[in-house]
Structure prediction request, 730 residues.
Amino acid sequence: MDTNAAPDAPEPPPEDAADLGRWALAQFPIGLAVYDRHNRLVTANDEMIRLSGLEPDRLPGRRLDELLPVAPFEEFARIGDEVLRTGRAVRADNYFVSPGDGRERAWASFFTPIKDAEGRTRGLSLAALDVTAEYRARQRLALVNDAGARIGTTLDMDRTAAELADSTVGRFADFVAVDLLAGGTGPGDGAGEGDGGRPRPGEAVALRHTARRWAVPEDPNAAAAGVPPSDSPGSPDTPASSTSPGGGYLCPPNSPPALALAAGKPARHRGDEPAVRSWAASTPALPPAVRARGIGSLLLVPLAAHDTVSGLALFVRHPDTEPFDDHDLLLAEEITARAAVCVENARRYARERAVALTLQRSLLPARLPGHAAVEVTSRYLPATAQAGIGGDWYDVIPLSGARVALVVGDVVGHGLQASATMGRLRAAVRTLADIDLPPDELLTHLDDLVVQLAQDRAAEARDGDGGDEARETDASCLYAVYDPVSRRLVAASADHPPPVLVTPDGTARFLELPPGPALGVGGLPFESLELEVPEGSLLALYTDGLVEGRGAGSGDEGGRLLRRTLARPAAGLERACDDVLAALLPERPADDVALLLARTRALDADRVGTWELPDHPASVADARKRVAAQLAAWGLEELAFTTELVVSELVTNAIRHAAPPIRLRLIRDGALICEVSDGSSTSPRMRRARAFDEGGRGLLLVAQLCRRWGTRFTSAGKTIWAEQPLSAAA
Prediction:
């Protein structure tokens, strides 16, 4: 190697260096323009000339607002003046239709001052950079975030469909329709749509109009074209016409929507495709005004979740709008997938709610029994919140001695579990009431039952069989017994809202019952309140959802409003119930509400006969005479023989096996009731006498002669009662 050789000499500068600079400026892929100190165009490269859509010889010496006297170019001219005045660069971001190709583009425009060696501004350069891809990516991300926040706010299928349409119309599509599969029951009745799975290929698909939005301002021309009035905006900046959910329609077999639904996959179509033109010409899925405006591009996205298709989202862009691309298809699929999950959850919730509501209503009284002691009416309103049906219940239970029990209870929790627990508690209350337990004792036994239920569920949870049902069970209950003969009311509460008593003079007050623990706490006592109630008084029993219906923490205010509403005169109990619900509840109560109203009655003295009997065998004959005379006065002579026989057996048993004082009472109500009370707490027992036994047939005879009989215990002893139906003539 020759180390003494001279190094390669650099190539001399090309003779056309100035031409290279001009060529680079002219051919640069970004639009560039140079303006003088008066903000008039000096030169522009080929890309800027193409974007302007003007002839090159028209450009030099003109301002932007003279070349293109429309927004945003008037604003650009103003920005150029500002840069020339201040010498500071400015960036402007805009989204507008490019005059050169008529397409909407996002532009980043850079206004940069051109300065001489002394730093004086001698002109400015304008560079227009197409950032449409980045802009649309940001818009898509913003749309996804906004849709995620707006879709699925409730467990209502129609509302979710409307949220999907509202969040995409205007910003993503010119027209949006979200239609759910028909089949099952319609909107608003609590049942789910469809039967799961997906439509089969080659079959017509029945859809139900659910939500349709069109991103056009309402004007007479739109109305004349058949656009229905708007009921909700499409976006904050874009008014939208819409239709209410309603009728259904059929997608013909092998039409684009039917094929998309059968495949369970989204599809993108051009408006000029023969299949799209044929389907769009007459389909009820598109309003006439949308068809008249034309379809430039179309997205069909099934609402698919958990291997189930529940409906179809249809997105339309008109011919004068940028057509959908693959990115738009992915975006629509992502947004619709969220809506599909919400719709499917709503459908499952609707089915569970319908089952729970059916169970709840089947466990509540189908009708309240008529009773001489009280006039009653009731209301039950299931919750409309997402928590589901609760465990509120009420009951009216006829008791012995013409008395009646009024019950209202509330199981903590919602759903099928709460309804099932409510049914068990209501059955237990009826069973305990049938043995005539006082209110405080009845609640004690009911508390034991709830504790046992909780223990059983805890054991199931330990064994791995309880699942979510292993949660703690609590309930509240109010049990009241009214006696129309004495007009005495005895009531006890297990952590339940106090009843309201309205006397005939219009005074309304809460009964201050002794506080009792919630059912399920266990081990704590219950106490009763006893008071005399004037005839014609109104007694209101309710659950906490009534007084807390207008928001958490409003129980005190709700209670005052309840008392004021009940104190106002009403045409009847039915009207009083309606007035209470209208005054205290919002349109969509968040919790179940049970309301029981009872107007007290009193039995006239001439319908009750009472006698104190000496503790002597001779009292039996005297009792028969008194009973016969009383029945004759009531015109019930045909019942005299049976009643005398029953009285003889009961009084004889009291004299032989019990302790004084002994009292006989006859009550003429819906039936003839015979009661014998004594001072002993020994419970009688019916037994079968053998063939040659001299005794043991008394209670068996009473049971055969009467419709029903029983024993109730009091603080002073017990009462044995027997009830006979009155004759048809009576």
